[in-house]
């Protein structure tokens, strides 16, 4: 064996030994409790896990905060449909997209039409979006709501890192499995961890997309059809008094409208009730003057025709002879 051959064999042996040590270290890394501490330290240091692309790093702000923005814009334009098409061109120029679009061309001068769109605009372009929309039509209202998701993103990154280490450990255990039961158990555990890892990566990607692209709802009306802006609540006592009086008068008007609608029916119901009451009274009066057999009762007897025997006014001291006693007795 030549010197070159011996050198080549020694090099191969060293590489094989290093590969084996690396595999053992990666396989046993998760069995050591310090592995979880390494993951926590990585999260505490602000490290970002790689989730398949560089979206998580590209969507961070200057201060490292990740913010989701949601906006709503109300616009007016003489031709809402044409303005909506210009808004689509604007979204494309800003490297955004249109998720939803609705256009109504109208039915004449009385109905000039309207349009509504749901845009996804890059967050870096949100500051200039009202000015860009103002070049297409008049922006009546533009509202922006923000949500800080930095903590949620960091939590997902840490969980993804821990799951990746777990998958790597289970892959090493599967490679060293010798029996059928060990292989089946290792494959089952590896499949579960891989599914969990894919779910976390998908959730992280959705969150990164919300941060990178802000959602903007745009509604376009004709100038004479634009809705009134929503007013804020009263700030002073007089404002509250005015608001209360307005609400009271509106309630009274509503009550009067309801009464006007129900009044004809109430009058009709009163007439029907009156007819029913009169009919029942007449029927009751007729029943009191009629016998049960249907014949009319005889009139009451005249007191002069009553017989003396039946008269309670007969004197009990009258003589039995029938003639009244004289003014004087027998001589």
Automatic annotation (TrEMBL):
It holds the Pfam family DUF4349. InterPro entries: DUF4349. Residues 287-331 are annotated as: Disordered. Keywords: Coiled coil, Membrane, Signal, Transmembrane, Transmembrane helix. Residues 1-23 form the signal peptide. Residues 65-276 form the DUF4349 domain. The chain crosses the membrane at residues 255-278. This is DUF4349 domain-containing protein. Residues 183-210 form a coiled coil. Residues 287-296, 303-331 have a biased composition (Low complexity). The keyword Nucleus does not apply. The keyword Transport does not apply. PROSITE patterns: PROKAR_LIPOPROTEIN. It comes from Cellulomonas xiejunii.
